Amino acid sequence: MSLFQYPLQRFTSRLGLALYGMEELLAENMLLIDAAYGTGSSINVNGSLVESPNLSSTTPSAPVGDQLVTFQFDSNGNISAYVPTPAPGGVTSLTGDSIVYNNASSVGAVTLSLISQVANTVFAGPTSGPNATPTFRALVAADIPTAANLPLWSNLQNAAGALTLANGANATTFNQTSAVAWLWANTTVATVSTTNASPLLELAAQYWATGAVTGTDLWTIKSSLAAGLNGLSTLTFAHTGSTGKAFLEAPGLSLAGYGSVGVTAGFIYARGLLFPATAGGSDWKVYLDTSVPKLALSSDSILNWAGGAATATVDNGISRLGAASLAIGNGTAGDTTGNLSFNKVIKYAGVATVSAGVPSELATVDLTAQSAAISATTLYAVPAAGAGMYRVTWVATITTKDAEASALGGTNGFQVSFTSPTDSVVKTDSPTTPIISAANTTGTSISGCEVVYAKASTNIQYAFGYTSSTPGQMIYELHIKCEAM
Prior knowledge:
With about 475 residues, the chain is mainly beta. It has one helix and 32 strands. The radius of gyration is 57 Å and the shape is elongated.
């Protein structure tokens, strides 16, 4: 191979590579290497040779927020890149966390923003244990200061003005776990010459009249003490607002408010409180004698009762017949067709009584159109507190006779069975001669009275016999009553 003498140039201009004595292809490679080095060299980009690339120029400008990279070459052909150091005192970047992040950056300044957090959380340290980095979290009970530092119920101070609890239609409940007192007190010190009254308890509602809401209907409750040593103590119910009748009502009792309440000579009286005066009469008065347990009514007008409550409707149930005499009826004065319920009679005709005082009918049986014997059937279930003596009376009659013969009462007649409280044995009242009748006429009637002493929580039962030549032809009826003695 003959060496090619590269024409016109013996050395490359940059690296000084010798070109003489080389083949043409080798010499061209040397020139390419020389061109690729130093300022104004060329680089291969995607297969195309770029002559004199600008590796360290300030044009074109870097994007906003970015900086140009500077490239440099050393004498050995090594290449490196660097970012210029910013001027002292400037911050150009900040790494964000779960609380703060940077949303923009610029030379010498960084804009910070808070990151959105979950609702109802606070920035606080750990809920317990050793100190730790604070985070956003929910409050816990231990975060609340002690009661001494808070305006709790146990630490309420005097208010600087009127207090209003506006709770709308929501209920307000104060729960206690024992019979503790709620005290509304006037703590002003009393003297012998001054009066003293409790704070007012006011109950208010809006009332309607003449086609519009006209104002507040108000009940006021207070206690007051008169001046003097051991002054008279009065509990007052006052009412203003609606001009309609005002009532104090308790379960089963309505008290019409027509007068005042006071204390006189050891009696608590309510003049006009229960019933208004009638024309020509005086108000009803209710006396509670504090020395003798009794309740007394006195008036010459009519005492009224309706719907289980005392009312002001004239002539509606209980009327006064005279001194110590009342009538219970249909509303007509003196009518006695009404009913009365009470526990016991302790005296009858001035004589002290025992037990309930008078017999009381507890059960009744009325059977008609009977055409067969009656087996043991419960007449009365003795209650748990009802052990004692009972009287059973009965009567039976034939309403249709048999064509040939019959026996009203059959063989054993009327029988009563019960359990004795002494030995808990079931007994049957069986007379030696049963009360029966073989007359077989519609004019036939038999009756009797049996007395038993029954155990509590047991049944008093009855049975009745029957005989008819043609079974079912004789028809009878049976009536029974059971009384507590």
